Fold this sequence. Notes:
Chain A is 38% helix and 15% strand. Chain A is an alpha/beta fold. A five-stranded mixed β-sheet of chain A has the order 7-8-6-5-9, sandwiched between helices.
Amino acid sequence: MKQYRSHLLVCAGTGCVSCGSFKIKEALEKEIKKRNLQDEIQVVATGCNGFCERGPIVLVQPDGIFYQLLKVEDVPHLVEEHLVKGRPVKSLMYVPPAEKEPVPKMKDIEFFKHQRLIVLRNRGRIDPEKIEEYIAFDGYEAMGKALSEMTPAAIVDEILFSGLRGRGGAGFPTGKKWAACAKEKATPKYLICNGDEGDPGAFMDRSVLEADPHAVLEGMVIGAKAIGASKGFIYIRHEYPLALKRMAIAIDQARENGLLGQDILGTGFAFDLEIVQGAGAFVSGEETALLASVEGQIAMPRQRPPYPARKGLWGQPTVINNVETWATVPNIIRRGADWFQGLGTETSKGTKIFALVGKIANTGLVEVPMGIKLRDIVYGIGGGIPDKRDFKAIQIGGPSGGCLPAKLLDLPVDYESLTAAGAMMGSGGMIVMDDKTCMVDVAKYFLNFLQDESCGKCVSCREGTQRMYEIVKGITEGVGQESDLDLLEELATVCKDASMCGLGQTAGNPVLTTLRYFRHEYDAHILDKRCPAGVCKKLIRYVVLAEKCTGCQSCKKACPKDCIKGTLKDVHLIDQSNCIKCGACKEACRFEAIEEQRDEAIQVI
Amino acid sequence: MITFRMNGLEVQAEEGSTLLETAKFYGLEIPTLCHNDGLTPFGGCRLCVVEIGEGLRTKLVSSCTYPVEEGLVVRTDSARVWKSRRMMIELMLAMAPGSKILQDMASQFGVTQVRFKVRDTECVMCGLCTRICAEQMDAEAIGFQNRGHKRKISTPFDMRSDVCRLCGACMYICPACQLRCQGPQADTALCNGCLTMEPSCLDHYDDLQCWMYDAGRCGTCVQEKKS
């Protein structure tokens, strides 16, 4: 094997690719070739590194130097200085907010320091399109162990003992699910990997599939042996083209190497995988809807029981697990259930990946041990709220999760605590909100998403989400009444109670948690016709502050409705009757002379 | 045979049958709308919800789709069940106020207000028409389109269907668009012309306390509806 003195690991996750990381890779390769260094230095495209805020990212190994926000123009300088002269380029390194000195090494950066990588252990380290690199980092070792040394019952026991719980949201113990399916006598049995990740702002499964597709594959072969399945399906939504491509490559490579198909590793065990492309309905992530979708029907959930472990795909016993769950399995088999038991809390074991997004300094993908406090994620790893604003809420668990306020920042992140607080683990989206966010508006946003994405079967969910949206929309427009809150609460509770599947049973959460923790904001909208955060357009108006306005006319130019009057160097005035409250003037003003007025009741026209 | 409890009564049912079938067999009345004995259970109208489980861990499930389980504890008329049923009736009435079946149910369950803006689509998406078309008429001429608030029932591409034989089964089975409520023309979505009384026990107990378990029929505790 060829030896290189240095590796340049270019992040090729979706975030960085959209920032142009393939162009950076090309430029690097060109520059290295120009200097005739191609035998000394290798450029590798890896899966998502996690620190998406700072893409495109290049990590130089073995030095461990982390370069961020790269542009193609920076490349010649970087190669010249670092790789030829051996002087790391300070200007391209990460500088933490509120500090001046850059942090050169990746392991010293706060964002990476507190993470515990198990599922994502190969992220930013290997080329996901090369099976050799996965194998070099202990890949397929667990599968070898499971196929040659362990009985199916021993595998199930190991997973059961590890305490692994489903990472898709509900947290059902994976071992129990496997045990139930293993004891079914009907054949054939099927395995399904649920990669239908649809929450706004969540990209955990996508990242795992893109960064380490072989880990998912290996987990599924182990699962197949445990329950006696002969065929598996990987369900990936068509919005994830890169994940689909890399998974297809991974399956082909595994087949070529005898790791999939007939007689795997010469043990006589046969198992094969097929990719199914989802058509993009959020509800397909619900397991029974996903089954219908794989069968070619409308993705509409059905009654459980019978659970899929008994009667699943085409009526056969089926195990459905989330991408992250499957990718955790090889780690447990390889390192033992005892080791996994030692991570996390009493009831929630191991680590969990979260997509940290919203008003946070370090946007990205983080893997943390269960039981970590929300504060450590937001302020430790996340680096706090940018622009010195205040933390207001964190929305956990996707659209049907809940918004938790600042007073719950010390809540440990585990299945039970989150559910008790009114949110849920969900698939792991975390949206941070600052004091410029209106919680009624947030509830409206999620209800709008849900009324679109409800499958429409249950009256409680289809009509419930529509009516809740109608009411909340009325409140944000200043036509809410006091009785609305009781009706909302009643509707949300009934929607949770009476709906058939997980979507409907959690669809009330955005309303219930915002009502529970931010009722005063609803009251302000209804009683005072005032939006405290200044977000709801019908309840604010933009005004020019005479003492700050310099009369520069930039707001006038920005206004799409031509409703700002004033001559050069004179204080401007906004004509309220024509204003559509788009906020373009406020953005255009360099003197902070335009402000949204919300202190007094503004008459709703 | 599977033995379990319904409203405190020990009942037996064959494996694979549903809670609704068992209730019917024992004469316990559970309201339904999207259910028809000749068609596959759908579980969409949520009127047939019953409360299962004991203590703090109870939940509501649709009895038309839920299979019988050994040792299950089922309550067909708890306060939580009635609360949900009333809300479902209210929600559906706002979609199809002309339906006599829904208006009658509103009177039966004491639904006396519709707090939502009426959006009269003359359809509650119960799916009876699509199922009878596919399962009994073997035509599959109509089906659901879209999802969520955009959902509707129509022929493929909204064009005249080649396989539709105009048999009228869809209209025959529809609970909303055929049988009209002929009661007094109220200016709200509710008729309530048949509303006379309602049982008083849910004000005091967690379940209906009806004689012979037959919900709301015995009349021993009914009162004039408080207006």
